[in-house]
Amino acid sequence: MSGFVIQTNKTKDDSVIRTIRIKGDTDDKLVELSEQHKITFNKLVNQCIEYALENLTEKE
User: Fold this and answer.
1) What predicted TM-score, i.e. pTM, was given to this entire model?
2) Kind plus residue range of the DSSP H or E element containing 36
């Protein structure tokens, strides 16, 4: 399994609006990463979710 790489390319995706709750320290780290890579918080969260889903190992 390859590591997570933050994509900085400008692409527009179809999206839906959802409200979620995340831990404060998780929010802090995501904000920090989005600022470092000059991408939106939303784009970073979507990349994290997509990576997790693509690399999901389900229990049997």
Assistant:
1) 0.78
2) helix 24-36
